[in-house]
């Protein structure tokens, strides 16, 4: 029979308490994550329906089933909560569009067409998230403009890097900088999509005309082949 010393007993007690604490901590962290996600979902829906100015943290906490103190504990204030929701939505889209299963063409214009079609499908699958993001960037809240513009610039930078890493850059004419060419094409198409979505935003039809808004084939053809006839 093994004789336990006082020191051995203390070690056993310590290990038991450590295991118990780890389980409790894991459970608390899981509950914290659940609460955070519930607040985020409630905030997404509230911001989508009411906009930044009209959104109420009281309605958010009621929908999430948490106290107002919990909301401010996680997010600080409404401003930070809004920016966090925007950031999470953009990360969600970026994760899907950069998934290994997204087999992009090596041709720049075909790859952009694929991404546009995938974006439309993703947006259709979650109209509230899409409506929120569309509203956010079509009519940026004044006090958040600098932050949102920074996010948009980062989003564009990520898109350029994604395409630059996937396409066959040898197709560009000699002397053309690939990343600048990609940026030029993306900015041109962004202007087209923004114009088409502006009309939908004004008509409150952002969710119903996605296919039209992201149908940029004719513009891609102009960018690919040019608009003038070759002389001679």
From TrEMBL:
Q: DNA-binding residues per UniProt?
A: 56-75
Lineage: superkingdom:
Bacteria
Q: Could you tell me which residue ranges the HTH tetR-type domain spans? A: 33-93
Q: Which UniProt keywords apply?
A: DNA-binding, Transcription, Transcription regulation
- Gene3D superfamilies for the chain: Homeodomain-like, Tetracycline Repressor, domain 2
Q: Which InterPro entries match?
A: DNA-bd_HTH_TetR-type_CS (IPR023772), Homeodomain-like_sf (IPR009057), HTH_TetR (IPR001647), Tet_transcr_reg_TetR-rel_C_sf (IPR036271)
User: One MF term from GO for this chain?
Assistant: DNA binding
Task: State what protein this is by name.
Answer: TetR/AcrR family transcriptional regulator
Q: Which organism is it from?
A: Paenibacillus lautus
């Amino acid at each position: 029979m093994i004789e336990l010393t006082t020191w051995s007993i203390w070690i056993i007690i310590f290990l038991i308490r450590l295991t118990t604490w780890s389980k409790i901590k894991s459970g608390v962290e899981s509950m914290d994550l659940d609460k955070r996600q519930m607040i985020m979902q409630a905030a997404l829906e509230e911001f989508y329906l009411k906009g930044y100015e009209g959104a109420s943290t009281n309605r958010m906490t009621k929908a999430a089933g948490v106290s107002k103190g919990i909301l401010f504990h996680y997010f600080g204030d409404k401003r930070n909560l809004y920016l966090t929701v925007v950031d999470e939505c953009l990360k969600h889209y970026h994760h899907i569009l950069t998934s290994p299963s997204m087999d992009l063409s090596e041709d720049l214009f075909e790859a952009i067409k694929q991404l546009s079609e995938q974006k439309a499908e993703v947006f259709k699958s979650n109209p509230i998230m899409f409506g929120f993001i569309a509203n956010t960037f079509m009519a940026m809240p004044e006090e958040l403009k600098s932050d949102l513009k920074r996010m948009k610039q980062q989003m564009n930078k990520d898109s350029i890097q994604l395409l630059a890493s996937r396409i066959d850059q040898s197709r560009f004419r000699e002397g053309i900088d690939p990343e600048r060419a990609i940026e030029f094409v993306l900015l041109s198409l962004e202007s087209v999509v923004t114009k088409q979505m502006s009309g939908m935003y004004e008509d409150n039809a952002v969710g119903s005309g996605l296919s039209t808004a992201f149908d940029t084939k004719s513009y891609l053809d102009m960018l690919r082949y040019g608009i003038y006839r070759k002389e001679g």
